[in-house]
Amino acid sequence: MTSPFHIKILTLFPEMFPGMAGISLSGKALEKGIWSFETIQLRDYTKDIHKTVDDTPFGGGAGMVIKPDILDKALCDHQPLGRFIYMSPRGKPLTQSLAHKLVKEPLLTILCGRYEGVDQRLLDSYEVEEISVGDYVLSGGEPAAMILLDSCIRLLPDVLGNAETHTEESFENGLLEYPHYTRPAEWIDSAGITRKVPEVLVSGHHAKVAAWRQSESEAITKVKRPDLWEKYIRSKA
Ligand code: SAH
């Protein structure tokens, strides 16, 4: 293992990695060896001249399916797998609490699907954990894997600098975050309206600031995410 958080990525498009994960804070963390990754090109496990990884679905229908035998060879060749994940719209939703759990794993293996997806028998055989990044369909698992990685990497120690950054963020306490303001304290927008920073934020009164932020968080969550609000209320009851 090359770092405390290593990721093996099975993909038909290894050139997509590290992509955005190689930029800014996660890019610096990659250079420092706080996390590391390797890509596994599925086509390397084909035997035919065309390097075919997919075939038509049994039962008919549109699209192609990635073959189980090819995937199995790639997986056998890259043991151990650690926690093995298939990015999939039918998976459990990626949440902040799941990201916290994943980032504690020393090794993740992420399978990125393409076309219609992968043969079900491969998923059954490995008892793969399926994770979704939302109720919409992407053309491949790579952008989904990238989102999962980004949500994990920023939680690693020494990536964001200030550990406190996390504790107040959206979802960390079951609420969405309160609004932020910075200088200038008074700003005139393009319609000529003077927009001031909420008074309490410049009062220097820490307890009042904290109370204001909490009530803003609650109000915003109530309006924007009634589902989260319900959960929050239930957890407090
Ligand atoms: N036929 C599938 C969609 C295939 S999309 C279906 O209807 O469920 C091709 C690949 O993109 C999938 O194999 C998966 O790896 C990835 N993918 C698409 N949408 C995704 C999402 N919301 N979350 C995670 N991965 C997704």
Could you please describe the fold and organization of this structure?
With 237 residues, the chain is α/β, with parallel strands linked by helices. It folds into two domains: 6-153, SPOUT methyltransferase, trefoil knot domain (Alpha/beta knot), CATH 3.40.1280.10; 168-236, Trp Operon Repressor, Chain A (Orthogonal Bundle). The chain is built from eight helices and nine strands. It has helices at residues 24-32, 68-76, 96-102, 120-126, 141-153, 164-167, 206-224, 226-236; strands at residues 6-11, 36-41, 54-55, 65-66, 83-93, 107-112, 129-132, 186-188, 194-196. A five-stranded parallel β-sheet has the order 2-1-6-5-7, with helices on one face. A two-stranded antiparallel ribbon has the order 3-4. A two-stranded antiparallel ribbon has the order 8-9. β8 (186-188) and β9 (194-196) form a beta hairpin. The chain is elongated, with a radius of gyration of 22 Å. The two termini are 44 Å apart. The mean pLDDT is 96. The structure holds S-adenosyl-L-homocysteine (SAH). Residues 87-90, 112-114, 116-117, 132-134, 136-138, 140-141, 144 line the site of S-adenosyl-L-homocysteine.
